[in-house]
Recover the amino acids of this structure.
């Protein structure tokens, strides 16, 4: 079978149709109102037009189209089928036969004559035949961005449209970002899987012209179903693609600066501008939290989907902004080479500094505030830890001492260890000093670990002589306070004759923390999630009192309770205990209600409130109100002090502007 | 290998043309001369696509589509109207009856094959 065969089939078919047409028209002359005859006539003309357009001469198809249009008026009853009109149609049938079987002869005069006769009899001017013009290809070879909204009717799936196939086909045209719009999807219990309730929005970057895109939606291309909008015409270069790294060998001829630029070019930005950016991102995170809270109350699916998008974008933006503030810790470590060398020289010690993890990144604020404590720890290690070469030799150790500075990231924490292979802490002398200073009682039994912890106690200096570098009254207690202020912790481990290791744990950033929002009375407070171990109902646990302090029994462990009323001077209330792990052990903060976890942008307190103990800062909640960030270690310290009688009983929590 | 394609048209030449265009691309095709014939050819047998004319004797295309859509065997099976109708209302009537889409006669066999490939996948 071939196209030629089909053409022959059509000619046979057309001959039959023309005979049917003639017979029907002759019958119609006698019975002009016979609907069956009218339909037969119409269908004959219709098929002659349709098949003729494929296999017959173009003039014949066009003429058949006119006849069909005219006869449609008859079929609709708008034009009576009189004998004269039947006569014209009979002649038109003859003319169709001529157009079909005697091609190449001039038929136009007769065609026009018959059309004029039809016009005269029906009073209607048949519209010109819509020419089967091929779609003019738009000369647009450039890449363009096109936004496509696809909103299929709910019956689309049942009626055989496969949205996935359409989307896949569209993706074949170029880079395509497909966003499903699920706002109209009902809840699971009301979901009819046979009904389509999703819509799609697609951004296509393509060189294909509009006709090619429309072609994808050939069956669904109707107003309200598909909208195709060009959003970015002819871009200078392929967009939405990562720029290829410029790593090929440099060309012999010098290129212009833009192309010669290395792939990882850098821009210097002042720290203040970065701070401003992070501040603004913080404001955005707060505004977004308010938006989320609003959407949550509105139960509006469309709003929720936008809010989710904003939420994701602001989280990304926050991460990017925070990332910009991250600096390699090498900036600190490299400074210490000189410090170690000079100090070792002046003390006649032979010390090598071994660094590792210098590339680990840390927030700039943390990094800046870490500098002095680290120097202090290093000085202590060199001054008090590592022995002179002679002493080392006598102890059977290499003359050269080693100081290791190591940084690594673990989870959301930065862990820095400062390790020396010196003599270790002299526990006997620490204990003696502590006794002399009245820090410990003479009969108090202390474990080695507890003795080691004493070096963080204010006012304990064990250096035999005040050296030029360390021991100027600034002790390890200051180091500890600085680290604690940075929301970090410090640990010490020592082995006599083998050395000492100090471990610092620091948050990677200070600007934004994961916070647990709790209510204490009418005030919202934030506890750092990282240190919250669990929350228990106060009514569910055993409480007791020992030496004037409240304790709660958490699975056999007595955890001191922290009532904030004593510190903030509010009425005592509370039903939930948030158990926090702090460096002094566990503390149970009594709160009225646990609200939930959320990203907390830390805002500094005003100078007036900064001196209030137990407050680490403030943050702005989703509803625009202010929550106080509690500094639990500081609160715990307050607790151990006798209650301040100076506080007015009516005083409320400080208000933060 | 997709199931056969049902081609419904009262015009022998169009039937021949459509089945030829499909068979030459490797699809199997079954022809029916009108809506009634189409329903008897379907009769529960698996088909992956129905291509139909609208204006046909005995049972017209739109009535046939409406009946096919009541058969659970053919839920989701695409139905393409292949017709010379240029009346938008008629086209909407067909879509409301359950047609997937619309192709206009005269058709380009290559385009028909592209559309079929799109709807049922390659042969």
């Amino acid at each position: 079978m071939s196209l030629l065969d089909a053409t022959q089939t059509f000619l046979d078919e057309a001959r039959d149709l023309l005979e049917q047409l003639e017979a029907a028209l002759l019958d119609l002359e006698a019975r002009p109102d016979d609907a069956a005859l009218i339909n037969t006539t119409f269908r004959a003309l219709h098929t002659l037009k349709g098949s003729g357009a494929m296999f017959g001469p173009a003039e014949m198809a066009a003429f058949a189209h006119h006849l069909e249009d005219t006869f449609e008026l008859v079929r609709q009853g708008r034009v009576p089928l009189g004998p004269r009109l039947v006569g014209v149609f009979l002649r038109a049938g003859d003319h169709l036969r001529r157009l079909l079987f005697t091609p190449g002869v001039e038929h136009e005069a007769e065609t026009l004559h018959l059309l004029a006769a039809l016009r005269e009899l029906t009073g209607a001017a048949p519209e010109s035949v819509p020419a089967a013009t091929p779609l003019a290809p738009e000369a647009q070879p450039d890449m363009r961005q096109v936004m496509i909204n696809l909103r299929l009717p709910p019956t689309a799936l049942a009626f055989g449209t496969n949205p996935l196939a359409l989307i896949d086909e569209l993706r074949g045209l170029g880079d395509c970002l497909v966003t499903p719009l699920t706002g109209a999807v009902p809840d699971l219990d009301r979901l009819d899987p046979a009904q389509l309730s999703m819509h799609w929005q697609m951004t296509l970057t393509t060189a294909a012209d509009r006709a090619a895109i429309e072609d994808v939606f050939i069956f669904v291309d109707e107003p309200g179903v598909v909208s195709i909008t060009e959003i970015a015409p002819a871009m200078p270069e392929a967009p939405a693609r990562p720029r290829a790294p410029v790593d090929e060998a440099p060309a012999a001829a010098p290129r212009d600066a833009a192309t010669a630029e290395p792939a990882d070019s850098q821009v210097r930005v002042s720290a203040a501008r970065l701070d401003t950016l992070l501040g603004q991102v913080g404001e955005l995170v707060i505004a977004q939290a308010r938006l989320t809270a609003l959407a949550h109350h509105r139960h509006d699916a469309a709003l929720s989907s936008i809010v989710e998008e904003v939420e994701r974008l602001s989280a990304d933006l926050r991460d990017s902004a925070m990332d910009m503030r991250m600096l390699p810790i090498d900036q600190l470590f490299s400074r210490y080479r000189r410090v170690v060398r000079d100090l070792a020289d002046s003390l006649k010690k032979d010390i090598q500094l071994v660094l590792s993890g210098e590339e680990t990144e840390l927030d700039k604020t943390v990094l800046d505030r870490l500098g002095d404590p680290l120097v202090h720890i290093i000085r202590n290690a060199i001054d008090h830890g590592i022995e002179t070469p002679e002493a080392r030799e006598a102890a059977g150790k290499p003359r050269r001492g080693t100081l290791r500075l190591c940084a690594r990231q673990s989870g959301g924490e930065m862990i820095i260890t400062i390790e020396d292979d010196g003599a270790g802490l002299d526990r006997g002398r620490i204990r003696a000093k502590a006794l002399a200073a009245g820090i410990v009682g003479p009969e108090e039994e202390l474990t080695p670990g507890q003795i080691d912890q004493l070096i963080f106690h204010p006012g304990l200096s064990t250096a035999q002589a005040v050296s030029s570098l360390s021991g100027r009254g600034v002790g390890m207690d200051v180091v500890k306070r600085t680290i604690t202020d940075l929301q970090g912790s410090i640990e010490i481990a020592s082995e006599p004759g083998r050395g000492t290791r100090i471990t610092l744990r620091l948050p990677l950033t200070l600007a934004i923390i994961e916070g647990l929002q709790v209510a204490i009375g009418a005030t919202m407070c934030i506890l750092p999630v990282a240190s919250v171990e669990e929350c228990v109902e106060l009514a569910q646990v055993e409480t007791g009192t020992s030496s004037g302090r409240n304790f709660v029994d958490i699975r056999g462990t007595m955890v001191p309770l922290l009532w904030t009323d004593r510190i903030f001077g509010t009425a005592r209330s509370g039903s939930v205990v948030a158990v926090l792990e702090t460096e002094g052990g566990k503390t149970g903060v009594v709160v009225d209600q646990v609200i939930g976890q959320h990203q907390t942008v830390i805002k500094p307190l005003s100078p007036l409130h900064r001196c209030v103990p137990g407050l680490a800062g403030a943050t702005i909640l989703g509803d625009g109100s202010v929550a106080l960030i509690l500094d639990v270690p500081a609160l715990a310290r307050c607790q151990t002090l006798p209650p301040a009688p100076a506080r007015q009983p009516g005083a409320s929590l400080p208000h933060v502007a | 290998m997709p199931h056969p394609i049902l081609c419904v048209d009262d015009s022998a030449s169009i039937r021949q043309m459509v089945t030829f265009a499909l068979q030459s691309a490797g699809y199997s095709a079954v022809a029916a001369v009108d809506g009634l014939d189409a329903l008897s050819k379907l009769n529960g047998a698996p088909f992956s696509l129905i291509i139909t004319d609208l204006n046909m004797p005995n049972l017209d295309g739109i009535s046939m589509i409406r009946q096919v859509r009541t058969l659970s065997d053919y839920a989701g099976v695409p139905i393409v109207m292949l017709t010379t109708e240029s009346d938008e209302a008629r086209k909407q009537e067909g879509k409301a009856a359950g047609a997937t889409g619309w192709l206009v006669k005269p058709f380009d066999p290559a385009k028909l094959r592209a559309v079929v490939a799109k709807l049922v996948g390659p042969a």
Residues 5-117 of chain B form a domain with the Rossmann fold fold (CATH 3.40.50.2300). Residues 43 and 52 of chain B are 16 Å apart (CA to CA). Chain B has five helices and five strands.
